[in-house]
Amino acid sequence: MLTLMVIVFLLGYLAIALEHPLQINKAGTALVTGVLLWVIYITMGADIVPIYNAGAFEYFLANNPAVLSLPLWDQCTRFITDVQILEQLGEISETLFFLIGAMTIVELIDVHGGFAIITNRIKTRRKTVLLWQIAFITFFMSAILDNMTTSIVMVMLIRKLIANYKERWVFASMIIIAANSGGAWSPIGDITTIMLWVKGNVTTTELIPALILPCIVSVVIPMLIASRLLRGIITQNAKYKGEGEHFIGVTRQERMSIFFLGVGCLVFVPVFKTVTHLPPFMGIMLALGIMWIYTELMYSRKVCLEERYKHRVPQVLKRIDIPTVLFFLGILLAVGTLQMTGILGAVAAYLDKTIHNVYIINLLIGLLSAVVDNVPLVAGAMGMYPLADPMTLGAAADPAYMANFVQDGVFWQFLAYCAGVGGSILIIGSVAGVVVMGIERISFIWYLKNISLMALCGYLAGAAVYILQVQLFM
Q1: SS3 for 233?
Q2: pLDDT tens-digit profile of 388-420?
Q3: What's the pTM?
Q4: φ, ψ (nearest 5 deg) of residue 126
């Protein structure tokens, strides 16, 4: 039965990786995969629960004497439905609510033209200077916003500035690399980093100093190579049409206030978690509430403005990417069953026995994330390797190796880097890449021939910098 679960998961994984050729949204595939695995698990619960969840199952029976009189299958079913599903849903909800809140705030800034405050300041027409400016802005924007939104904003900017589509493809490719690298070093910059941060595997104060230099290197190396391909002055795209209709009824000062308030609220979330010790989704919900009240008060003064031009939060909520949220739900449900049945633990034991090197394991995960989605990869890694307790390291068979898995351990920090940056090696390896590919119609083969080697060089150079940091300072 465990073999059947592995087959179902791999088939679902394959369908997710082949989303575009199959023309089936990965959210639907992930939901079907996640629910099917739970169906298989609860059907065979009597054969699985007493073996792989013995301690928790015994504790459940001891605290629920009424269940003791039931047959074993019913006992296991009650344990799965009353304990494990609820625990899984609670853990998953923390990530999903955080995503919904963050995505809504970003959309609120975008629909009011807040990002124009940054992009409108770009005036240069020299190709190399523009390339570095675009990469610099993308790198730091994606550390605060999500990679997909940052990529869309910056690609729409270069469509305005650059007429030649081949040159624009080079710029767009650097945006992909900068967005993925920028999201990796911030706790709120990339979904995989968010997952690690929400679960407590990494903390803000340790993650940023550890990864910012490797992430910068992973961008600088491809940029130096790409700069050799661009010379002279760009030709502006005369066909570009502005987005003035989105800003009707909103003054420049109001756009600026929404931008700075929104960004401030996002930056405030890690501070909120550190001060209150409450989960990050509580901080993002507070931030969303503040933004909601502010925009309502702003529009309440605009009595002459037509309602269709008022971008209130209820309207903005319709714009957020719900399929992406449901995709995460399906994947995390699926990975949860593999963790509870001991499958991920067996995979971790195999890797530990055959490789036994956290750097190589993470480098392989990063390379794999260039082909398949990095969310299930990171979720799987988190399931394979539970967060280690520093107090129990002394009892471990290999305390030095297990030290890599404590909070802010080398494994978790390097996983955040590899899963985030490795997705740039192929254009289909990240959400940012897929979005840019769709907007600019960039060919997979063109990216493979012209950009993949640059991205790989940056990925390996940044990884080398991180490993060197660990050897010198840890």
Answers
A1: strand
A2: 887 777 666 778 888 888 888 999 999 999 988
A3: 0.73
A4: -75, 130
